[in-house]
Design goal:
It is a single chain. Helices cover 48% and strands 18% of the residues. It is of the alpha+beta class. The strands form two sheets. It has a six-stranded antiparallel beta sheet with strand order 3-2-1-6-5-4, with helices on both faces. Strands 7-8-9-11-10 form a five-stranded mixed beta sheet, covered by helices on one side. It is elongated and about 110 Å long.
Length: 413
C-alpha cells in the first residue's frame, strides 16, 4: 500500500468510527458555503505553499471538518470526523496555543510523533479559532506531506489574523441567525394573535345580533318614558360594538389575507349604500344632526358596501371628536374626474404630529370620547387605497374634514 493510500485509509477508518454521530451540521453548512472562508483557505495554501487547508470544529471529544481544500488527496471533506485523540487540535484546544512545525523529521517537539506518523504529516499548522466572546470554536489548519516554511513569522501572523476573521464572522453569522429566528417567532406570534382576533370578532357577532334583534322587538312594544330615553343609548352602544367587530374582522382578514379585498361592480349603488349608512347612524345617535348631500351624476364602478363602511368609520370618528350641537356634513360628488366623499365636523384641529400617523392601525385621537381600537381611520384609508384612491385630511376654520377620493374606474372585464 502506498503512503497516500495508507493516509486515506487511516482517515477513513477514523471517519467511519464516528460516522453519522456528529451534530454540527449547522456549523458545517455555514462554513462550507462561505465565500470568505473559501478565499481564506486558498490564500493560506498559497502563502504557506501547503497543499491542504481546513477549518475544523473542535470540542473536548470531537473533531469535525467543516471546510477543506485538499490537493494532497487526504480524502477528507466537509462533515468527515476524526477521533479527537488522533489530532493535534486537542492540544490547541487545551492550551490555546498553536501547533506549528516545518519538518517533523527534525522538529525537537514533534519528531516521531504518532499522529504525524499515522497521517504522513511532515509540515503542520493548527491555529485556534475563537468567537468574538472568547469561546473556543475550532482550528484553522495548514498541512503538507513535504517540508514547508509554516513557522515563518509572517506566515504565523497571517494565519492568526485569518483565524480571528473566521471567529468574528462566525459570531456575526450566529447573531444574524438568532435574529432571524427571533423575527420568525415574532411573526408566528403575530399570526396567532391575528387569528385569535379574527375568531374573537366572528364569535362576537352572534351575541351582538341577538341584542340587535331584542332591541328591534322592544321598539314594537309600548314604552315608558324611561325606556324611550334608554333605548336610543342602547342602540348607540350596540352600533359602536358592531362597528368595532366589523373593524376587527376586516383588519384580521386584511392581515391574514394580504390586504383588504374589494369587488368592484359597474354602476354600483353607492348613493344608496351611503344613504343607508347615514340613516343607520342617525337612528343610533339621534342626538347628532347629520346632513347628507349626494350628487353622483356619473355611473361609478366600485365596491359600494366597502366604500359605505369607510364612510361609516369616518362618521363614527366625527361623532366621537366633533363639537356637540354642531351638524356633521356628508357630501358626495364628481369633481375633476373623481368621486369625492367628504365627512366634515366642527371641532379642535388635529395636531400636526398626530396627522402623520392618524391612518396607521391602533392610533387614536388625544381626546377620544368613548371606546375604540384606533382601527377606523386605518381601515377607511385601506379601503380607499384598495380602490386606487386616497383620503385627504384638512383642518380649517374650526372644521375638520376627511375627503375620500375615488378614481372613476372602468367596468371590470
Amino acid at each position: 500500500m502506498s503512503d497516500g493510500d495508507q493516509r486515506r485509509a487511516t482517515i477513513q477508518d477514523h471517519a467511519a468510527f464516528l460516522e453519522g454521530r456528529h451534530d454540527f451540521q449547522v456549523d458545517i453548512e455555514r462554513l462550507a458555503t462561505s465565500d470568505l472562508v473559501g478565499t481564506i483557505l486558498e490564500t493560506v495554501m498559497f502563502a504557506t505553499n501547503s497543499r491542504f487547508a481546513a477549518v475544523a470544529r473542535v470540542t473536548e471529544d470531537r473533531w469535525v471538518a467543516c471546510r477543506t481544500v485538499d490537493e494532497v488527496n487526504f480524502g477528507m471533506s466537509e462533515g468527515d470526523e476524526i477521533e479527537i485523540g488522533s489530532t493535534f487540535c486537542r492540544s490547541v484546544r487545551e492550551t490555546s496555543e498553536p501547533v506549528l512545525f516545518n519538518d517533523v523529521a527534525i522538529d525537537e517537539t514533534y519528531r516521531n510523533h504518532p499522529i504525524a506518523t499515522g497521517f504522513g504529516i511532515v509540515s503542520y499548522a493548527s491555529i485556534p479559532i475563537r468567537r468574538a466572546d472568547g469561546s473556543f470554536f475550532g482550528t484553522l489548519c495548514a498541512i503538507d506531506t513535504e517540508p514547508r516554511d509554516i513557522k515563518h513569522p509572517r506566515a504565523v501572523a497571517m494565519l492568526e489574523m485569518f483565524a480571528r476573521i473566521i471567529g468574528q464572522g462566525l459570531e456575526t453569522e450566529e447573531r444574524l441567525v438568532a435574529q432571524e429566528r427571533l423575527v420568525a417567532q415574532e411573526r408566528e406570534m403575530a399570526r396567532i394573535q391575528e387569528e385569535f382576533i379574527a375568531v374573537l370578532g366572528h364569535d362576537l357577532r352572534n351575541p351582538v345580533a341577538a341584542l340587535d334583534a331584542g332591541l328591534r322587538q322592544l321598539d314594537k312594544e309600548p314604552q315608558s318614558e324611561k325606556a324611550r330615553r334608554v333605548l336610543p343609548l342602547m342602540r348607540a352602544s350596540l352600533r359602536r360594538a358592531s362597528d368595532l367587530i366589523d373593524n376587527i374582522m376586516l383588519h384580521a382578514k386584511a392581515r391574514l389575507g394580504g390586504g383588504i379585498r374589494t369587488f368592484a361592480t359597474p354602476d354600483a349603488p353607492l348613493a344608496q349604500a351611503l344613504a343607508e349608512v347615514v340613516e343607520e347612524i342617525r337612528v343610533a345617535a339621534p342626538e347628532h344632526r347629520i346632513d347628507l348631500a349626494l350628487s353622483f351624476d356619473h355611473p361609478l364602478c366600485c365596491d359600494a358596501p366597502r366604500i359605505a363602511q369607510a364612510v361609516s368609520n369616518l362618521l363614527s370618528n366625527a361623532l366621537r371628536h366633533g363639537t356637540p350641537g354642531h351638524p356633521i356634513e356628508v357630501r358626495g360628488a364628481i369633481r375633476d374626474g373623481e368621486a369625492v366623499i367628504t365627512v366634515a365636523n366642527h371641532g379642535k384641529p388635529i395636531p400636526e404630529d398626530l396627522r402623520e400617523k392618524l391612518f396607521e392601525p391602533y392610533q387614536r385621537g388625544v381626546e377620544t370620547r368613548g371606546e375604540g381600537l384606533g382601527l377606523g381611520l386605518y381601515i377607511a384609508a385601506s379601503i380607499a387605497a384598495a380602490h386606487g384612491g386616497r383620503i385627504e385630511l384638512r383642518c380649517e376654520d374650526g372644521i375638520t374634514s376627511f375627503a375620500l377620493h375615488l378614481p372613476i374606474l372602468p367596468p371590470p372585464g
